[in-house]
Design brief:
- The protein is an alpha/beta fold and about 425 residues long.
- The protein has 13 helices and 16 strands.
- It is globular.
- Bound molecules: pyridoxal-5'-phosphate (PLP).
- The site of pyridoxal-5'-phosphate (PLP) has 14 residues, from helix 5.
Length: about 425
């Protein structure tokens, strides 16, 4: 049995069928902004391995850091023990995140960091003598992960609510932000959220949102003033603000964090994906001193979470080095350059009859079609044209590594153009 056949019969892939799985391609190497398939074909990487691999693959400095840590120790339990990789990573994070965040919970994955954030918010209010504040509010079109608490705040329609309805806690949903990035801010945009807060604030622990870019829930790029208005509303109604920057963090939107577009500090911040430069799974939930102390000042006196691989030294050493590589690079110029190239390469697709919208921010380019795409057909055209791009629903999008050259960006944009002309 060949590898692909074995894979097809035995291995689950993300969101795919055990009966009729989508085609799967074997990778034998990945270097810089390129993936090599088993048949020798090289593809320009348009996805950064789902927003994570910001420096491209096989970064020499991160490889060296990983090897050095592996030869020292790859893991020890974090209960009662600590180590330099966690300390160095935490100090780097605190230096770069919005001012006011002071405590870091290093956990396994983005979804887990959202679970941690939600637990923190609920435990905070319980300890403050307000246990009825246990509901969340989220804008529609959000995506926060696949675990149960994370799922419960994902978009109730395009998320998985209907399937798992009986097992999910019901929260409150506001309409998605409507004013697009770069358009004139319409303060009415925030009115429905104010209504929800006015009605329900006594039972609401936190508002959770993806600042400026809603990712897997629709690739929507919205006005940063919405985030500022959310901060103000949360303060007014005594509700914590959780910003999920798992996708937007580490420069992707043109600022180090999307919150920086409006100088907002959330009470709780979730980071993941590009935290390790896409090398290993690790995420972080950061919070203010007020939240950290508030969680722990009453019974049970500790924050009730502690996964086996918390603070994993190998992942932490990699993450710390990835941050150094990022901050010592000209990442902002690169992200701006990618933004310009994506505008040049994608904007004219707006004129195609099947295209609903084209939008670009930082190193993110989105072509929204009027109807759902045929992933298999479209991907075969992309691959024939030298590009690795994974569309979903109506969305064809790019978020390449920051090192992607102009020539490689042109290959990606050209592949999208060819794909649309062939399949629509
Ligand atoms: C904004 C956001 N939050 C949370 C997650 C979940 O992260 P993970 O897949 O690492 O669990 C994702 C993943 O796509 C995401 O985009």
């Amino acid at each position: 049995m060949d590898n692909i056949q074995f894979d097809r019969e035995h291995i689950w892939h993300p969101y795919t069928s055990a009966i009729e799985p989508l085609p799967c391609y074997e990778v034998t190497a990945a270097n810089g902004a390129e993936i090599t398939l088993a048949n020798g074909k090289k593809l320009v990487e348009g996805m950064s391995s789902w927003w994570a691999c910001i420096h491209g693959y096989n970064n020499k400095r991160i490889n060296e850091a990983a090897k050095a840590q592996l030869d020292t120790f790859s893991h020890v339990m974090f209960g009662g023990l600590t180590h330099k990789p966690a300390i160095d990573l935490t100090s780097r994070l605190l230096d770069m995140v919005p001012i006011g965040l002071s405590r870091v919970f290093l956990c396994d994955s983005g979804s887990v960091s959202v679970e941690v954030a939600i637990k923190m918010a609920i435990q905070y209010w319980a300890v403050q003598g307000q246990p009825q504040k246990a509901k969340l509010v989220a804008p529609r079109n959000g995506y926060h992960g696949d675990t149960f608490a994370a799922m419960s705040v994902c978009d109730p329609i395009n998320g998985m609510h209907s399937l798992f309805k009986k097992s999910l806690i019901q929260h409150h949903f506001a309409p998605a932000p409507q004013t697009a990035f770069g358009k004139t801010w319409n303060p009415d945009d925030i009115a429905p959220l104010r209504d929800i807060f006015e009605q329900h604030h006594e039972e609401v622990a936190a508002l959770i949102l993806e600042p400026v870019v809603q990712g897997a829930g629709g690739m929507r790029i919205y006005h940063p003033e919405y985030v500022r208005a959310c901060r103000q509303l949360c303060d007014e109604f005594n509700i914590l603000l959780i910003c999920d920057e798992i996708a937007t963090g580490f420069g992707r939107t043109g600022e180090l964090f999307a919150c920086n577009h409006v100088d907002v500090t959330p009470d709780i911040l979730c980071l993941g994906k590009a935290l390790t430069g896409g090398y290993l799974s690790m995420a972080a939930t950061l919070c203010t001193e007020q939240v950290a102390l508030g969680v722990c000042e009453g019974e049970p006196g500790v924050f009730m979470h502690g996964p086996t691989f918390m603070g994993n030294p190998l992942a932490a050493a990699i993450a710390k080095t990835s941050i150094d590589v990022l901050l010592e690079s000209n990442w902002r110029a690169n992200v701006n350059r990618i933004e310009q190239q994506l505008k040049i390469g994608l904007t004219h697709l707006q004129d195609h009859a099947a295209v609903a919208d084209v939008r670009v921010l930082g190193a993110i380019g989105v072509v929204e079609m009027k109807t759902d795409v045929n992933v298999t057909r479209l991907q075969s055209v992309f691959i024939a044209n030298g590009a690795w791009i994974r569309p979903f629903a109506k969305l064809i999008y790019l978020m390449p590594p920051y090192i992607t050259s102009d020539k490689q960006l042109a290959i990606l944009c050209n592949a999208i153009e060819k794909g649309i002309h062939t399949c629509f």
